[in-house]
Amino acid sequence: MTLDPEFQVFLGDCRVRVERALDRWLPTEKTQPTRLHSAMRYATLGDGKRVRPVLAYAAGQALGTATEYLDGAACAVELIHAYSLVHDDLPAMDDDDLRRGRATCHRAYDEPTAILVGDALQTLAFRVLCEDEDLRIDAADRLRMIAELARATGSRGMAGGQALDIEATGREIDLAQLENLHIHKTGALILASVRLGALAAGVGKDPRVANLERYAKCVGLAFQVHDDVLDVEGETATLGKTRGKDAAADKATYPSLIGLEAAREMASQLVEDALGNLADFDAAADPLRQIARYIVGRRR
């Protein structure tokens, strides 16, 4: 899709910022244990959409905060996302060989190292929220950020969604069950990205945050629906991961339940609903508007 030029600049700036911040927080490859630290950097740095950190930056900006105060929130959600991908790709889970156009972590290194990489990235995310000196908020808001990320990551969030996904594999489930699965597996961390951006802005109790939360819930579901569409009609070289993996694993998807065209329409309607929740925001929320459109226009 063709991106708005101003949004392209915003997207590029956010990706550069979070990459630099991640590079600072991740141990160097020369630090013992070197193989683990090398694998952590391999799994986290480099080519990635960075949707979750961009959402954290955009939410904070929409509430009037400069991006330099949002690096901690952006890093934390991306570290959790990177950990989840490493573990999702393991043979015990999705058994994938490709991620972001290159060998998955357990293929590039080994399975025991990949397990430890996920463990270490998850704990590093919480260390960032505890120690980041650029977070201009009080201790109470730091604790709220830590609690929010813990909820989004655990059994009532992303990990729980993965458990529901495992239970549903090879079984028939209905649309409501599929939505519940993805509200947890994908949507919880996307919602947390927006909430962390608001908390890092020091305005977690601003009434407009409720609108941002509704926006995030729509965007999170749209992201997953479009991912399911891409798994059907995308190309492996473009996706950066194996096409058709869901069908091969007998997983329930939106195209398999409601059809490809209906899934596309569903994603588009979710984006419109997301945009409707930004009606009371000014131009500072334009990156959020562009992200919503980008979600269903991307090819990877």
Helix content: 55-70%
* Strand count: 2
**Which CATH architecture would you pick?**
Orthogonal Bundle
Number of helices: 15
- Reported by name, the CATH topology is Farnesyl Diphosphate Synthase
Radius of gyration from the alpha-carbon trace, in angstroms:
18 Å
Query: β content, as a range?
Result: under 5%
How many distinct folded domains?
A: 1
On the 0 to 100 scale, the average pLDDT is 92
Strand order of the main beta sheet, please?
Answer: 1-2
Q: Regarding CATH, which class? A: Mainly Alpha
Largest sheet features: 2 strands, antiparallel
Task: List the secondary-structure elements in sequence, H or E.
Answer: HHHHEEHHHHHHHHHHH
- Overall spatial form: globular
Give the CATH superfamily.
Farnesyl Diphosphate Synthase
Low-confidence stretches: none
Distance between the termini: 11 Å
Counting helices, strands and paired strands, the structural category is mainly alpha
Molecular structure report:
The chain has about 300 residues and is mainly alpha-helical. The protein has a single domain, classed as Farnesyl Diphosphate Synthase (Orthogonal Bundle), CATH 1.10.600. It has 15 helices and two strands. It has helices at about 5-25, 35-45, 50-60, 70-90, 105-110, 110-130, 140-155, 160-170, 175-200, 210-235, 235-240, 245-250, 255-260, 260-275, 285-295; strands at about 100, 100-105. Strands 1-2 form a two-stranded antiparallel sheet. Helix 2 (about 35-45) crosses helix 6 (about 110-130) and helix 3 (about 50-60) packs antiparallel against helix 4 (about 70-90). The longest helix has 26 residues, at about 175-200. The chain starts with a helix and ends with a helix.
